[in-house]
Amino acid sequence: MIEYRNVKVALLGAGSVGSQVARLLLEQGEELAGRAGAGLELTGIAVRDLDAQRDVELPRDLFTTDAESLILGSDIVVELIGGIEPARTLILQALGSGADVITGNKALLASHGPELFEAAEQVGAQLYYEAAVAGAIPIIRPLRESLAGDRILRVMGIVNGTTNFILDRMDTLGESLEDALEQATALGYAEADPTADIEGYDAAQKATILASLAFHTSVPLVAVHREGITGVTHEQVVAARKAGYVVKLLAICERLLDEEVSDGVAARVHPALVPLGHPLAAVHGAKNAVFVEAEAAGDLMFYGAGAGESRRRPRFSAISCRPLAAT
Ligand SMILES: NC(=O)C1=CN([C@@H]2O[C@H](COP(=O)(O)OP(=O)(O)OC[C@H]3O[C@@H](n4cnc5c(N)ncnc54)[C@H](O)[C@@H]3O)[C@@H](O)[C@H]2O)C=CC1
Ligand SMILES: N[C@@H](CC=O)C(=O)O
């Protein structure tokens, strides 16, 4: 039997995503160790309420309400609490203690990304966030690493599964936005506050992250034009189809080319008419798809699971590959 060195993993949060991450770390520990070349030891799970009902049954002795103590002595901290505080403070504390951090927290990255990346750089720690944008789709690493030598001109796509699910139901089943949202919530696609989905905040946060990476700059969230889908009516969806289009909520990040001064950047989120023959028109349900237009590589398309019940495994794949990379 191979003896692996042990990497201590602290998990913060055991909600929809965190509880699945814990389950898979426990269930597939040996397989992951084989792939990572190191044992991933889940040392504890910090939660707010020890008695809360969870999606998954997990060993009770792993739970603690003392996130700060759990972080101390950890090699990797996985933050799946969400929101700004205490997530921000806990991540800074983890980085300060020298741990690598993995987070799926797009809201925090969109509003405090530069502060967190600087904190990581100062101590030589890594901050991984593949799961923060487009679910299971590996898009962060391709933008940050694989395409680092290319000049990206445009990143455009469907990055919110909830709104894609709703628009798809309005189009194919004639359902109302309200009924489709209820379904999306029941299926676990929507955020705790679904306003983040239907008003385009979630997609705007993801656009901020994508634009910053693609154009090697820091695009502030307030600079992203945002319009959600609450103004989209059944009549508009029907009229769009008759005219050969389908309505999709798109995130569009573009380089504004300028030969005289340095290039500008534009990022926006809004409903758009996508021609029925376009690949994005075939993205159904809660699936996501991202198009990348690069100078040398040409057009690339990334497609896969974005949110929902099936998102939990995809999310895990996006989260779990980071510990592998981090070890
Ligand atoms: N649900 C999804 O489909 C996706 C979620 N994410 C991100 O992953 C993160 C987690 O999302 P979910 O699991 O859906 O959230 P959730 O609301 O289901 O779970 C959050 C967990 O954090 C715990 N928590 C809250 N405050 C805490 C505190 N002070 N100390 C310790 N634990 C605390 C809660 O008790 C709960 O267990 C968020 O940043 C979210 O944006 C990213 C991609 C998809
Ligand atoms: N609510 C989000 C979940 C994943 O990021 C979405 O619908 O895409």
From TrEMBL:
Q: Which Pfam families match?
A: Homoserine_dh, NAD_binding_3
Keywords of the record: Amino-acid biosynthesis, Methionine biosynthesis, NADP, Oxidoreductase, Threonine biosynthesis
**Which reactions is this enzyme annotated as catalysing?**
L-homoserine + NADP(+) = L-aspartate 4-semialdehyde + NADPH + H(+)
Aspartate/homoserine dehydrogenase NAD-binding domain: from which residue to which, for each copy? 13-130
Q: What class of enzyme is it?
A: oxidoreductase
Domain Homoserine dehydrogenase catalytic: where? 138-310
Pathway in which the depicted protein is active: Amino-acid biosynthesis; L-methionine biosynthesis via de novo pathway; L-homoserine from L-aspartate: step 3/3; Amino-acid biosynthesis; L-threonine biosynthesis; L-threonine from L-aspartate: step 3/5
Record-listed E.C. numbers = 1.1.1.3
What's this protein's family per the entry?
A: Belongs to the homoserine dehydrogenase family.
List, alphabetically, the PANTHER family matched: HOMOSERINE DEHYDROGENASE (PTHR43331:SF1)
For this entry, the protein name equals Homoserine dehydrogenase
